[in-house]
């Protein structure tokens, strides 16, 4: 009897969410992978790569978004509502980090267990197979894997490293080291990101940030961690030009600190996010500035939700912040049995051009692409 009551309550919750979603989303599409993915990487405005993270053999897939989502007009006349696999391959180990090299059909991956990289050809019109083409040996011992960033360059190259002292820029074709970050610090990295053609940020798990230029061997600029106690920090930089680029640092205690790239020591604003639980796994926490929506960022990995925050009303004094929007579809659509493992978000990403379109993945293998509607403010 109790099981029937719980099932009825769950059905009511799902019904309520479905009705609410009709006015909360402009579009919402659901796809189910055979195995969950921990990476989402755009290869174009219409295609995205996902890959499994099991200890054994894993699929790598390039998916085309539903044509119904991509249709700007006359959506009712578009019959294609599902994701389509356009290229696929297999990896002999897990894939914990994946980066597409801009302007090419190459991508670079890392298994999350060492600092070595794997090189891949995504295939083209003449082949639907994603095949491995080589590897790059890392320069440090790592149990958490390397972070990867790929600049837009005429010469295919990739920035990678597991620790601040092991960051290097490598030529993909020859394997030649083009640049090394000069520092004695061995702090584990949380992220690498280019904020210009040659200028990049190396963000550490302790909250410190290195800014350097691959054209020079000069010592990098170093920003100390934000004040406050935290076990770990995650960082992202906005896609704006360097003169107005903002850097976001999020702590494991839920504190968000926004700084100007030109003065990382002085916070522009700060807030305590409405995060109710500790991260399921630090490697699953994802923080991204919105590439088109000014002042907005998203966060996932602390639960089964993806939350979107708007920083435009934040102040320099610490304050509590509520999400502007949150996607709860993964958590609500997963099994709700008493002995089931809670679903958590493994990755998410903003569409590079569509302002409110995101792609998200969860531990149950579900993949959602959703275009959210900004709630009306009171």
- The beta-strand count equals 29
Shape descriptor reads: globular
Mean pLDDT, rounded to whole units?
A: 88
Which spans have pLDDT < 50 for at least 5 consecutive residues?
none
Q: What separation lies between the terminal Cα atoms?
A: 42 Å
Estimate what percentage of residues fall within beta strands.
35-45%
Strand order of the largest sheet: 18-19-20-21-25
Q: What does the model show?
A:
- With 378 residues, this protein is mostly beta strands.
- The chain is 8% helix and 42% strand.
- It contains 3 helices and 29 strands.
- The strands form 7 sheets. It has a 5-stranded mixed beta sheet with strand order 18-19-20-21-25, with no helix packed on it. Strands 1-29-28-27 form a 4-stranded antiparallel beta sheet. It has a 4-stranded antiparallel beta sheet with strand order 2-3-4-5, with no helix packed on it.
- The N and C termini lie far apart (42 Å).
């Amino acid at each position: 009897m109790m099981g029937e009551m719980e099932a009825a309550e769950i059905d009511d919750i799902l019904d309520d969410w479905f009705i609410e979603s009709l006015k909360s989303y402009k579009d919402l599409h659901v796809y189910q992978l055979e195995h969950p993915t921990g990476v989402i990487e755009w290869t174009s405005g219409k295609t995205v790569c996902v890959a499994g993270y099991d200890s054994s053999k894993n699929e790598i897939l390039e998916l085309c978004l539903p044509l119904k989502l991509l249709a700007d007009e006359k959506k009712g006349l578009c019959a294609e509502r599902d994701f389509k696999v356009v290229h696929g391959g297999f990896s002999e180990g897990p894939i914990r980090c994946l980066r597409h090299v801009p302007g090419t059909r190459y991508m670079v991956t890392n298994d999350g267990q060492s600092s070595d990289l794997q090189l891949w050809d995504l295939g083209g019109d003449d082949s639907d197979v994603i095949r491995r083409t080589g590897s790059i040996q890392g320069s440090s011992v790592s149990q958490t894997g390397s972070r990867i960033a790929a600049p837009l360059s005429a010469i295919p190259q990739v920035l990678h490293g597991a620790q601040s002292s092991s960051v290097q820029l490598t030529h993909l074709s020859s394997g030649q080291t083009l640049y090394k970050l000069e520092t004695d610090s061995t702090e584990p990295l949380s992220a690498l990101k280019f904020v210009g053609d040659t200028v990049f940020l190396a963000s550490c798990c302790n909250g410190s940030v290195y800014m350097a230029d691959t054209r020079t061997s000069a010592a990098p600029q170093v920003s100390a961690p934000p004040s406050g106690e935290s076990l770990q920090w995650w960082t992202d930089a906005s896609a704006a030009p360097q003169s107005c680029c903002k850097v976001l640092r999020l702590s494991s205690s839920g504190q968000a600190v926004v700084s100007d790239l030109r003065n990382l020591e002085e916070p522009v604003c700060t807030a305590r996010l409405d995060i109710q639980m500790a991260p399921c796994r630090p490697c699953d926490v994802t923080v991204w500035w919105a590439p088109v929506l000014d002042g907005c960022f998203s966060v996932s990995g602390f639960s089964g939700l993806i939350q979107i925050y708007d920083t435009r009303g934040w102040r320099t004094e610490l304050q509590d912040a509520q999400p502007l929007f949150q996607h709860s579809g993964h958590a609500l659509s997963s099994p709700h049995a008493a002995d089931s493992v809670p679903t958590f978000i493994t990755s998410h990403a903003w569409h590079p051009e569509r302002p409110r379109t995101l792609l998200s993945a969860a531990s149950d293998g579900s993949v959602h692409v959703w275009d959210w509607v900004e709630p009306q403010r009171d």
